[in-house]
Amino acid sequence: MSNEIKINSDITESQRISRASNGASKTQKNIFERIFEKVRGFFVSVPERPGADVERPHAEIDKVSTTLPFEALPPKECVPDATATSAQSLGNKSQEDGAVGTASISARGRATMTTKTTCPYCNSSDFVKRGVRQKKHEVVQLYLCRAEGCGRTFTAERVKGKRFPLNVILDGISYYNLGLSLEQTCKILEEKFGVPVPEVAGASGTLSSDSSNTFAPTPATLASWIEEYKPICRFERMRPYAIKLFPPQKMMEVVTMAHRQLYRFRYHRAKTLLCLEEFKNSRFGRLKEYLDNVSSETPHQYFQDGERMSEIRTKFDKTDMIVRSKTNFANKIAEFVLRSVPNNQERHDALQRFMIANDSVTVATEVPVYIRREDVEHMENELKFKITSRPDAERPSAEVDGSIEPSGEASHLGTILLKGDKQERQFPKLLTGHIDIVQIRNGIVHILDYKPNASKEKPIEQLTWYALALSRLTGLRLFEFKCAWFDDKDYYEFYPLHIVKKIQTKTNKRTRKVHYRDGTIAVVPNENVFKVA
Predict the structure, then answer these.
(1) pLDDT tens, 475-501?
(2) pLDDT tens per residue, range 360-377
(3) Helices and strands (H and E) in the chain: how many
């Protein structure tokens, strides 16, 4: 009897939403359809032929990206994942299996184990897999603890007691923070994970009478998720002001760039404007100008010819630098998001999508940057930075490979060692890269890079080159940047200025002289030493 009452209440809620949308005017329906078409691709994969996107010109790729502004990227190898199919294919597969919504989420919503996962009963990391458990909307992996005296079975999920998988919860919170209402977000989730909505898809008919086949949360359920995860999703305090600046379809700019492989540049316009209103961040207007012009003025040919910053093997002088280890919101967000990622190759894109939509300080992801040889010469000659290794007169010339780059053009700049080279070469004409995450907080521009097993990684050279390139492109001084790399457990940060700027100590102190009228000169000692005879 209690089950029948619950089902009837669910039907009443869905009918209430359907009747409310039917009672809307024709103009309101047209507006909602346009918003839905703009936002529905937020977590949908690219087409199954990624090579076609690479072969198309850049202008055409940018045009496709603006049509589906929140489309997700495949892994870096440009191979489409079978678990990340579109909403239509998910619906067709689920109908063939005989269970709408449930079968489509089984493989995709399975939780994964991270390096931080331990047995919740004894905190032991010695466990093995022990089958799966079929829930209402997903299949959960079970684990058996092998510690002596425990032997209990547990799951790797953080959201215990929830009817919906974690990826559905993350999608719902992200859609809502992009400016959509609770009802619009629920309709998009229903279109993506369950039965198509007639009012949106344009199909005739009514919703299924069996509420168990409708894979979509109610507005009340979505509101409870937003309230529960408010401590992690801090953009909720900025959302009332952001929706007044931009509509949902224009709040974020997304551009797909074919730079040897596909990169998805995401730029949050409203969040950038709100961050710059703070007095400490008011001087970062040049960064906003650069991010505004990435989609229209990025020289794509540079990224086809230039060398990658991540492939540089030349080490900087780290004598005066200090690396600080700390814990902040980036670790909490990474630990929360990575639970919903079924494939390790999708970690970067999933983390970037969630942080750009729900974090209060992340303004852009996958930002393209480049630095020219002339820029490095200016930094070394005018700013007195120590970037490249100067050629040594005593070192034999055979150690420098002059055939790769003409030695006459950059012999005065210095040499550099790239990945795969056995000999140092002259500094190339271009160095290019893509910054994972750019944040504005506390009067500093933070350059972040997600590195699995961050405690074993030291991407100091890569992040320093990112800071040098972004400083040169935006005109901001280098001391206004801070670099960091992180994962779900560790966070390490440093100032790039401490690496390239070396303070010159004065060895010879200046002597003071006193001239008397009779022409004699007396030298004043530097040290005021009081001697008693």
Answers:
(1) 999 999 999 999 999 999 999 999 998
(2) 999 999 999 999 999 999
(3) 21, 17
Q: How far, in Å, are 7, 56, 129, 510 from residue 267 at the CA level? A: 42, 23, 40, 53
The residue whose two tokens read 């003409």 is 406
Give the mean pLDDT of 305-322: 87
Contact 147, 126 (CB under 8 A): yes
At residue 102, the pLDDT reads 33
Q: Are strands 400-401 and 424-426 parallel, antiparallel or unpaired?
A: parallel
Q: Which residues contact 273 (CB under 8 A, 6 or more apart)?
A: 245, 288
Token digits of residue 30: 């047209």
Q: Give the integer Cα–Cα distance in Å for 141 and 144.
A: 10
Please give the torsion angle defined by the CA atoms of residues 194, 195, 200 and 203, in that order, rounded to the nearest 10 degrees.
Answer: 150
510, two tokens? 């200046």
DSSP 270: H
Q: Which residue has the higher pLDDT, 95 or 133?
A: 133
d(CA 389, CA 453): 30
Enter the DSSP assignment of 312.
Answer: B
Give the three-class secondary structure for 36.
Answer: helix
Q: Provide the pLDDT for residue 391.
A: 52
In the sheet that holds 139-145, the strands lie side by side as 127-134, 139-145, 153-155
Please name the residue that has the structure tokens 């109908």: 95
| Number of neighbouring beta carbons within 10 Å of residue 446 | 19
pTM assigned to the model: 0.70
Helices 182-193 and 26-39: angle between axes, nearest 10 degrees: 60
